[in-house]
Amino acid sequence: MLSYRFACATDPGRVRPNNEDTVRIEPDIGLVVVADGLGGYNAGEVASRLCCDTVAEIVRTASTPRAADERLRSAIEAANQRIHAHAQRHAAYHGMATTVVAVLVSGEQLTVAHVGDSRLYRLRHGRLVALTRDHTLVQEYIDAGWLHPDDIHHVDYRNIVTRAVGALPAVTVDVAKHTVQAGDTYLLCSDGLTEMLSDAEIEAILCNAPLGPATALALIDAANAAGGSDNIAVAMIYCTNTGGSPHAHADHHARWT
């Protein structure tokens, strides 16, 4: 039987005055959520926090048993409605929204749901693979053959997302399932990490840093060393074959959860 351990860390980076990224981990139900708020000073922070809180609330209190994919999808849809309604009621928050990537792990199954450009990666046998696909204008141009992936960092529209939680009355959520293996490490992160570090650089850190909280901090330190142009949020899930149930305690200062 697989067992899971969780670690996370957030940092404002070296440019932004406040941190609009939020991480939420609920170890007892195997839930991890990373959200990157949009909408200017304070509003983005409100949106990301509302998203994480709502997803956790809905997943935990679902009144009828449902599959993990439906639980995550309905939770993010509920977060979308809550954020959009909050923005309509409060002028200071008009236009706020957030990206989100949320994971549920149970047994040998991982279910991921995401909106926007916050990502989920899997490290297996030393190889890093992205398990989500960004909802961005850049990705649409790449898919259409109008932009080469190597040219991403040379365009000024690379941070434009085409989907966000709370931006519109309804949202389309991408959901997928993956089979977990003992020894897997899963990384959820905001684009504050992936804008600063290439997949190869992230892979090298995950392979070479001590497992767990130290790795979360190493990723943030590397992103800051590369410029730290945005807030950075990372959450890690490590899967082991020692048996038992998901365990440990949550902390946003990069300790095991």
UniProtKB/TrEMBL annotation:
<dbReference type="InterPro" id="IPR036457">
    <property type="entry name" value="PPM-type-like_dom_sf"/>
</dbReference>
<dbReference type="Pfam" id="PF13672">
    <property type="entry name" value="PP2C_2"/>
</dbReference>
<keyword id="KW-0378">Hydrolase</keyword>
<feature type="domain" description="PPM-type phosphatase">
    <location>
        <begin position="5"/>
        <end position="239"/>
    </location>
</feature>
<dbReference type="GO" id="GO:0004722">
    <property type="term" value="F:protein serine/threonine phosphatase activity"/>
</dbReference>
<protein>
    <submittedName>
        <fullName>Serine/threonine phosphatase stp</fullName>
        <ecNumber>3.1.3.16</ecNumber>
    </submittedName>
</protein>
<dbReference type="InterPro" id="IPR001932">
    <property type="entry name" value="PPM-type_phosphatase-like_dom"/>
</dbReference>
<dbReference type="InterPro" id="IPR015655">
    <property type="entry name" value="PP2C"/>
</dbReference>
